[in-house]
Specification:
This protein is of the alpha/beta class. The chain is 37% helix and 22% strand. Helix 5 packs across helix 6, helix 9 packs across helix 10 and helix 12 runs antiparallel to helix 13. The structure holds S-adenosyl-L-homocysteine.
């Protein structure tokens, strides 16, 4: 039993079964035993690898996409350049190097990172040394200023709740204790859940749906700042337009694991429901783009051309790795279509580079 499993068992003994969202929040961010709070999980020797850790080109293109939006909106200065869940700081370091070529952008940028993990904050401090970073626990404290923001694999780490359809109501999946004292799944009594009313139409008895309460709480105020002050928010994650079924996933050492087996020692994520994200952005008064596949978006931003430019300087295994990175990020069945992109921007401003208006706005 992990120390966190013991802590959770005590909590359940004292206050009863807990929703999955409480379990995820503790497993990921408990101050002394949480997965992110205590370690750097990225890279070949870690538990998983993310796009910016695969190739520098990812952060470069994200940076140039934000800079194009900044130019399109009249180069507001100063402005907030922000990232949610920056991991090792690699994406932002690559973006910053690329945007140094856009006159005025880096000089006007004030760098703000939203990160709760002390371990990862330290990595970010090293990666972005000298750039004058301000850290936040929560996006609510970001400045009231034009906001150009990126979030890669952030929303998938937010705690979700799971509900099972029973008649016209929903029973919540909860964590309780077996007679031997280990964590087990259970179900609450069924009742109505207002936030799931729209899912009564596309689910049947026994169907499972997920709800991420923190998602609108985070995305709607960000969109409101962008709608009012200018800017853009680009979110990249794995998921679909509307999630159906159990997407909770645990990964340790690059392998799927049982989500309850070792809380605090495996990464826990769930698919992002992009419809929920689009609704949350729209509720803040921002215009929302269509959801796009990551591969399509990166190719529109010039990933193939950038790949060739860098390839000309490489040979041997470095060249092979570089080409493999291009494939991994763009190929169908790999990150190219498992990952999706969506953005919001002030109504009446240009659609961010590589994205399109949602279908109902197309001529
Ligand atoms: N964007 C990075 C890291 C993705 S992992 C990359 O692409 O490599 C998720 C990141 O979000 C980690 O930095 C983690 O510590 C952070 N994080 C997770 N939940 C968070 C929360 N509720 N508030 C702030 N940061 C969070």
């Amino acid at each position: 039993m992990t120390p966190l499993a013991r802590h959770l068992a005590e909590r359940i003994r004292a206050t009863g079964p807990m929703p999955l969202s409480d379990y995820m929040a503790e497993a990921l961010m408990h101050p002394t035993h949480g997965y992110y709070a205590t370690r750097d999980p990225f890279g070949a020797g870690g538990d998983f690898i993310t796009a910016p850790e695969i190739t520098q080109m990812f952060g470069e293109l994200v940076g140039l996409c934000l800079a194009q939006a900044w130019l399109d909106q009249g180069s507001p200065a100063p402005f907030t350049l922000a990232e949610l869940g920056p991991g090792r700081g690699t994406l932002m370091a690559d973006a910053w190097r690329a945007t140094a070529r856009v006159p005025g952008f880096n000089a006007a940028a004030r760098l703000h990172l939203v990160e709760q993990s002390p371990t990862l904050r330290a990595r970010q401090r090293d990666a972005l040394a000298g750039l004058g970073v301000t850290w936040h626990d929560d996006p609510a404290s970001l400045p009231d200023a034009p906001l150009f923001l990126i979030a890669n694999e952030f929303f998938d780490a937010l705690p979700i709740r799971q509900f099972v359809r029973q008649g016209a109501g929903w029973a919540e999946r909860q964590l309780g204790l077996s007679p031997e004292g280990s964590l087990i799944w259970g179900l609450s009594p069924a009742g109505p859940v207002t936030a799931l009313d729209h899912r009564l139409a596309d689910t049947a008895e026994g169907g499972l749906v997920e709800l991420c309460p923190a998602l609108p709480a985070i995305a709607t105020p960000l969109a409101a700042t962008i709608a009012r002050r200018g800017g853009v928010a680009v979110a990249i994650d794995y998921g679909h337009w509307r999630s159906l079924g159990d997407t909770l996933q645990a990964v340790a050492a690059h392998r799927a694991a049982d989500p309850l087996a070792a809380p605090g020692e495996a990464d826990l994520t769930a698919h992002v429901d992009f419809e929920a994200l689009a609704r949350a952005f729209a509720a803040g008064g921002a215009a929302v783009t269509a959801m796009e596949r990551q591969g399509t978006w990166l190719l529109r931003l010039g990933l193939a051309e950038r790949t060739e430019r860098l390839a000309a300087r490489l040979a041997g295994p470095a060249l092979a790795n570089h080409r493999a990175a291009f494939t991994r990020l763009t190929a169908p069945g790999q990150m190219g279509d498992l990952f999706k992109v969506i953005a919001c921007h002030p109504p009446g401003t240009a659609v961010p580079a590589g994205l399109t208006r949602p279908p109902e706005h197309r001529a």
